[in-house]
TrEMBL record:
InterPro entries: Atg22-like (IPR024671), ATG22/LtaA_families (IPR050495), MFS_trans_sf (IPR036259). It is a multi-pass membrane protein. It comes from Kineosporia mesophila. The keyword Transmembrane applies. PANTHER family: AUTOPHAGY-RELATED PROTEIN 22. The lineage of its organism: Bacteria, Bacillati, Actinomycetota, Actinomycetes, Kineosporiales. The chain crosses the membrane at residues 21-43, 77-97, 109-128, 134-153, 174-194, 206-225, 266-289, 301-319, 326-348, 420-438. This is MFS transporter. It is found in: Endomembrane system.
Amino acid sequence: MTTDPGVSNAAESRRQQRAWYVYDWANSAFLTTTLTVLLGPYLTVLAKRDACPGRDTDLACDTSLHVLGVPVSPGSLSLYTVTFATLFSALLLPLVGALADRSGRKRSMLAYFAWTGSAAGAAMVFLSGDNWQLGVVLQLIATLAYACSIVVYDSLLIDVAGPDERDRVSSRGWAIGYVGGTLLLVVNLVLVTAHDAVGLSTEGAVRLNLLLAGLWWGLFTIVPYRRLRDRPPVDPVPTDVSSGARAAFRQLGDTLRHLRGYPQTMAFLIAYLVFNDGIQTIIYASGIYAQEQLGLSSDQLILAILIVQFVAVIGALSFGRIAARIGAYATVRGSLVVWCGVIGIGYFLPHGQFLPFAFLAALIGLTLGGTQALSRSLYSHLIPRGREAEYFSLYAACERGTSWLGTLAFGLTFQLTHSYRYAIIVLIAFFVVGGLLLNRVNVGKGITQAGNPVPAVI
């Protein structure tokens, strides 16, 4: 009895896609629990405790910290840390992408970065008192490792999915990631709300949740590490590490020159880096905004993010279906209009009332996964074959090349006005400008220029 090679290939493709999905499950839980919900507000508490000793951390603190001689508001510390990490990663990620393409060891690189980040995340269990300095260091390491792993992970989308599958596979990956994040957030909520029952203080419960998020990320990364397959590189890297790094830098320079021959790809990158800046800032700043501006408690914040996660599963899958009908390009453009509405609603939310914030959380969840998943799959069609990780590193580097502007603008606005409401309204500009730039992109022409098959619906 013989096996149909077409059936065998299809089954192997599905196995590879399932392994790929698991990394979204692994890292999304860390992104949600640590970087979105807990670390920013908790680091703000530690910083306020150092700047204003003896004062209730629920109250405003007008005294500045001094970081390398620069005065920094405690409420802006975490945002500035993200800003620095973003700027540094903009320089680092193109090298990571070039090495990934030339080494042919994407699977191992993915695991190395993930386990480095998960170790830093788990070490956050040691944050206490007013030790915000350790928190800043660990946040930098975890954020950089996360960014590097995502470059490699995104580039694997092209290896595991064909052109007509990518919107579906990318959207399903985001959805599965949100499911994983939701499950861990349920544990977070139980630990924070029932901390007395398990013999923990509120801060002890937060630290334990930070530990669990780091462990979750590292343990589930074992699945893609063991099951994904490496593919031979188009242009292998030399075995000598220093020669490989020099070759990767040369390739990066070649890629930047190469990119000029793909004007539609470049136009999409420019549009993406602007509107995604707004998205990333909302992700990083939402916890601080809810706690400091709206006066919501940690358990209310976790419950709101649970709503985001639950609705985001529906949103990512629904956006994938919408894209199958009208195309990813039109769907992403429409989502940017919704983001402007999200910011407008956020500005007018009343202090101390959870239900209006819960409604906003549902709206964010509906839009978040779809925008990011479809942007990723749309860009994958614009990449020349054989340079996937390198071009996805440009995707991530362009994102981080200006993503620091959002967190910087948010942090500076708060430092100048002492109001997060004024800070959030500034973000509308990123979606308006990004949408205008996206309207100038001819996606069909860009796919043809990249030498890729044009999907039935784009």
